[in-house]
Predict the 3D structure of the following.
Amino acid sequence: MSYTALYRKFRPDNFADVKGQDHIVTTLTNQIKHNRIGHAYLFCGTRGTGKTTVAKILAKAVNCEHPVNGSPCNECAMCKAIQAGTAMNVIEIDAASNNGVDNIREIREEVSYRPTEGKYKVYIIDEVHMLSVGAFNALLKTLEEPPSYVMFILATTEAHKIPITILSRCQRYDFHRITIDTIAARLDELLKVEGIEAEEKAVRYVAKAGDGSMRDALSLLDQCIAFYLGQELTYDKVLEVLGAVDTEVFSKLLRKVIQGDVTGSIHILEELIVGGRELSQFVGDFTWYMRNLLLVKTSEDPEEAIDVSSENMKLLKEESTMLDVETLMRYIRIFSDLSNQIRYATQKRVLVEIALIKLCRPAMETNLDSVLDRLRVLEQRMDERPVQQVIVQQGNSVSGAETGAVVAAAEKKPPAKAAPEDLQKIVAGWRVITGQTTGMFKQMLQKSIPKYNGETGEPILYVEFQDFLGQSYVDDPDAKKELQDIIAAQTGKSVEIEMLVANQHQHTNLADITVDQAIRDNIHMDVIIEEDPDEPQE
Ligand SMILES: [Zn+2]
């Protein structure tokens, strides 16, 4: 016995079984009941939302010998012939492969003959946006004066590609993406018929993965069932088959990101990859997780707004207090950009790693979102050390200041002593100095923070890289020499240089000095930019 895919096996054969498109079904059945059938219909909507299914039911309904309540009876000869695909008067054309003028001319010739059986000759043209310009023109002629017994049903996923002249001659129906509830309910029904036990959580995951498409959801369900034939379908098995990741992992990852823990986040990613998880899927699901978090944060009644278990809701509520809306939106933006890029990328892993680093290190970005996020980090530090004075400088309005827009003065307990004058000059000219290097080294340097030891006053310049990517330069004598030469040429001084990676070195008492800090130290004037955290800047 050959196996029939679920979506074929359970393809609705009457309007009552079509799910999630009530607005369309109601209109069409009313037309049939009152015999007010149109000659040209345009069905628009994303894939798997039921366009061709409804087209076929409509073709049956208008030809049925005794329709019931606007639906086909599925028992008369016409219904059976159309169902079996043997009816001469229902013609299905895939415009993707028959898009030429000749294909449409053929139709124009055919329509001059009355149907040999049934009342209507029905042409179902799928992917109609693929027709050539000439073919559209030929089609238009037919649509302008259709014989009374002809009906066109055009289906498309891309309505904007249909010429206006065609659009204006069709009744247009927009098929909605189907909700998770509707899909899950349908899956439950079918699983019962098939006699398969399944956890509710498993069914809901498959429904969600269908992303508004009943057909996709059914195909995914098929995969899961085939993998564990004859067994109960559990949530874990579904994740396994679909290469998906449990929400608990997302929660762990998000917390690492909020802490700015690059190494920790990359480590979680590593585990997922080793576990054979699919990265595009992961990116989509993590975005969805953050979207849920956003709803929890902004909704009055999050339990109503999103669909998660009570233990996940608890985690989400905890996390919603850990970050503000602007930061979360920045995270979501980065990840939804990523989900567009990753589909066609060969180096998926690298892209995901870069995105995670961007989340952890807002300093690497220069747009408004990330500036707000940097302020969040800053405010956090202020909360931790309420007595310390903090200076915020946005952009690089002070000439020669390094780009790091946020400078927390509170790096260590006793305030740092001023650096030797030479080092101050170097630090003040850091942009200019690093600008003379090239390639990857330059990129790393431009994010680095030059520091000095204020306690000993030793004439050593400490170059602190902000993440592990700078690691490879730490012990590279050539890189060090290059930098020393540039400094010597620029300032006429030779300095000792030590390169470090932030959070990975033993020098706990280093100070970073920037121009505005030097101004504060020397002129004894505090510069504070006030920022209301509750009021997003637009
Ligand atoms: Zn019938």
Observations:
- The chain has 25 helices and eleven strands.
